[in-house]
Amino acid sequence: MRAAFRNTIAAAVAAAIAVSGASVAHADEIELAPLRTNTATLVDSDGDGLPNIWEEEGVVLADGTEIPLPDWGADPNRPDLFLQLNWMASEYDTLGCDTSAVRECSEANRTSYAPSKQGLDDLVDLFENHGISLHIDAGEHYTNIANYSDAHGGETIDYRGIYFDASRQEAFQLIDTIDQLGERANIFRPGVLGDRMRAGSNATGLSLVGDNTFYVANPGGRANEEQVRNTILHEFGHTLGLRHWGAAKYVEDIAEGSPMQDGYHSVMNYNHQFDYFNYSEQPYFADTPHGKVFIPADWDSLEIASPRIGAYAESIGARAEIIEQPEEIVEIEQPAPVEVAEVHEMVELVPAEEIEVAEAEAQPGAVPAEPVKAEVKAEPKVEVQNQVNIAAIIGGIVAALAALGIGGAFLAMR
Q1: Ramachandran area for residue 170 (φ above 0: left; ψ -120 to 50: alpha; else beta)
Q2: Helix (H, G, I), strand (E, B), or coil: what is residue 255?
Q3: According to a count of CB atoms within 10 Å of the terminal CB, is the N or C end of the chain lower?
Q4: How far is CA 62 from CA 37, 38, 182, 313, 319, in A?
Q5: Three-state SS annotation for 346-412
Q6: Contacts of 144 (CB under 8 A, 6+ apart)
Q7: Is the pTM of this model over 0.85?
Q8: What are the pLDDT digits (tens) for 283-342?
C-alpha cells in the first residue's frame, strides 16, 4: 500500500491552491518535480507518512540532520503531525523604531502576528482528542515537543504589508516555503502568519491542498486570537486533504466559488470558519452538479501521509541528549552533643507550659505557620549519696542548659 502510494506520487504531484476568506480564486494545478524516495517499502503502521523504524529508532536525514523522533514523542502506533510556525515581526520592530526615530515610526503597525499560546494549546488538544499527536515548533514562543532543543519556528520574517510577490505564481512561493526547510520537510509542515496576501485582499489564507504548507493572513492585524487560531486550523486542514465542502477526493465535482453547504459543520466551511473550532464529526449529503453525494466526516478522511513526509533518509538511528536532573539532597547539620555532669542533688525545672514562645506572624498571602511549641524534659530526681559542692553542681547545670538554649530557674533542695 505504502509502496503503491509512493510510486504514484513520485512521478508527479498535483497541488491545488485553496484560498480562504472574502475573495476566492479559481484553483490551479501545479506539476511538481518528482520526489526522491528510499522509504517506499518501509512499514508505516499508523499511516502518518513516518516509517515505523524512524519513530522507533530516529533518523538521520540526507543533509546530516538528526531527528530523534522517539525522544520527541513520536509513536509508530499513533499518527504524528509535526508543524513549524513562523510569522512576521511588526512593522514597528522591523523599522527598528525602538532604537531610532524614523519618520515612518509614528504610523508604524505594531501588530504582533504571533499566534496565542492558548490557541496553540487548543490545536494540540483538539488533535489529541481525535487520536492524533500534533507537535508544534513555534520557536521560543511555544513548543510542546519533548526534548526539543533546536527550534526553527517563531518570529523570523520581516514585516511586509503584502506577503506574496505579484510577479510570481503564489503556489510556487508556497513551495519555496517548503524548500526553505531543506531535508526537514521530511518531518515538518511549515505554516506562515503575516499581513495581507496581496494588495487590497481581505482573504485570510492560502494553502496547497494535500501538500505541506499554508499561509495565514491577518489583514491590518484586525483578527482576534480565536479567529487566527481557527484560520490556522482551516488552512492546516487544506494540507490534510480537505476543501471547503469536505475531503477533496469526495468533492471533486464542486468548483471553487460554489456556495457553502448547510449540512457541512466544519471549520473548513466559510460560514463556520470563525465560530466552529473543529473539523466535521458527522457525514452529510452535499449538493453537486451530479446530485446528492455522501461526504464522510472530516476526521475520517484526513490525508495525514503527505507525499513529502518520510520520503527520504540517509540512515537510521538518532537520539536526543536527555539530561535528567538529579534529586536535590539537603544536608542538615546536626548540633554537637553537650555533656552534662552527673547530678547528685535533687533539682526541679520550671514546667514547660510556663515558658513563653512567640507565635510567628503570618505574612499576607502566605500559609500561616504552625504555633511553635517548646518542650523541656526535667531530669529525673537523683538521691544524694555523698556530700558535694552544691554551688559547683548548680553552676555546671546552668552552663549546660544555657548551651542548649534552655532557660529556667533552679531550686536546690537542702
Answers
A1: alpha
A2: coil
A3: C
A4: 11, 11, 10, 6, 16
A5: CEECCCHHHCCCCCCCCCCCCCCCCCCCCCCCCCCCCCCCCCCCHHHHHHHHHHHHHHCCCCCCCEE
A6: 120, 121, 124, 135, 136
A7: no
A8: 999 999 889 999 999 999 999 999 999 999 999 999 998 756 555 555 555 555 555 444
